Every structure is written in structure tokens, then in C-alpha cells.
Amino acid sequence: MTAGDPTHFIWWLISRASGIVAVTLISAVVLMGLAMAARLVPARRKRGLVSLHEHLAIAALVAIAVHGATLLGDAWLRPGLAGITIPFALHYRPAFTGAGIVAGYLAVLLGPTFYLRRRIGARAWRRVHRVAPLIWILAVVHTLGAGSDGSSAWLRAVVLAPVSPMVYLMAARVFTKRRSGAAQVRSAPVAATARTEAGRGPEARRPRASAPARRALPSGSGRGTR
Predict the structure, then answer these.
(1) What is the pTM of this model?
(2) Residue 34 and residue 118: Cα distance in Å, rounded?
(3) Deepest in the core among 25, 127, 155, 185, taking most CB within 10 A?
(4) How many C-beta neighbours within 10 Å does residue 21 have?
């Protein structure tokens, strides 16, 4: 087995390939989440997209696990268990490898929340998912900074391709949220008036006769007339 033999770097190659798969899946998951948050997905397709979103997130976790575990077999790097589990502990480019480990931990913590949404509530679930873009950013920093081919044009094209769609979807999400808030503010007085009218009862809601109408009543219809 010579240094030029690809099998000499088999564990590195497997780890690098699974890492690229992981960051690609994370990109797809984040884009889908932002599209749904911005309400750009038709209702008839939302259920299918949610299912795909969930499965791709699980696949990303598997790819992350393979990416880290296969490094243990790399004869050149020799990271050890601490090197792949403790952020910034690895001697090889610690800042970039540490960013990848932090991204992995955040992804592992975020993934199971798919199954805890009913328990923690939709509002808390949405707040937790705001960390998803941060996971993507850390994964991109790790991919471009820790990889031996991080400066190659093809890898940068693959990893940075989602930047423009993400910026657009984030802006659309903010716009949708503000528009929804404005609509709620406009509808609040109407809802308050409806609740007030509902609590008055039928007698209170009956229109009263105006003063001219009361004066137009026959003189003998009131009490105390002679």
C-alpha cells in the first residue's frame, strides 16, 4: 500500500464524502423550514413537505454520525474520541473542526424536537427551530475551513449555492410575520366590539327610539295623561 493508493486515505475519503452529504442535507432542511415559515408552501403540499423535511433531517444526523465516526480510522489525523467529541480539542485546524462539532451537537439537540412539538407547544417549537440557520452557518464554516479541498471551486459552489435562497426566504419570513402582526392589530378592535356586543344581551342591543320619534308618539299613549 503506497501513499498514492486511494485506499490509504479510505477513512478520510469516507468522512469527507459523508460530511459534504451532511451539509447538503442541512441546506435542504433549512431551506424547506424557511419556506414553510414564510408561508410560501401551498396547503395541499405542506403535509408532504413536512414529512420530507423530517426525513432529510434524520438523514443529515446519520451523515453527521458517519462523518465523525469514520475519522477515528484515519491513520494520518488520528483524532481519538476526544478529538471528534470535544469542540476545539483537535490539533488539526481547531477553530474549524470545533465549529463542526458544535454544529453537530446543535443538530442532534434540534432533531428530536420533531417528536416533541405537541409536548412543548408550537410556539416553543418555532423558537427552538430558529437555531437551524446557525447550524447551517457553522457547518459551512467547518466544511470550507477544515477540509483539504475547501478552496476548490466546485465545493464552494455546492456549499454556498443556498445563500441567496436563504436570504430571500428569511426576508419573506420577516415580511410575512410583520404583515400577520399588522392584520392582528387591525382586527383587534373589531373582535373587542364583537365580544362587548355579545355580552350585553338582546335587550341592550335593541335600538332605542330617537328623541324626535318619542315626541311624535300620540299624547294619550303615555302615563299620567288626561
Answers:
(1) 0.76
(2) 20
(3) 25
(4) 17
Q: Cα separation of 128 and 139, whole Å?
A: 18
Bin 144: left if φ > 0, else alpha if -120 < ψ < 50, else beta.
Answer: alpha
144 touches 93 (CB < 8 A): no
Domain boundaries along the sequence of the chain = 6-183
Q: At what angle do helices 10-37 and 132-146 cross, to 10 degrees?
A: 150
* Digit-coded pLDDT (tens) for 158-175: 999 999 999 999 999 888
Angle between helices 163-200 and 10-37 (to 10 degrees): 30
Summarised one tens digit per residue, pLDDT across range 97-107 is 999 999 999 99
Cβ atoms 185, 51 nearer than 8 A: no
> Coil, strand, or helix at residue 191?
helix
The number of residues in the chain equals: 226
Residue type, 109: L
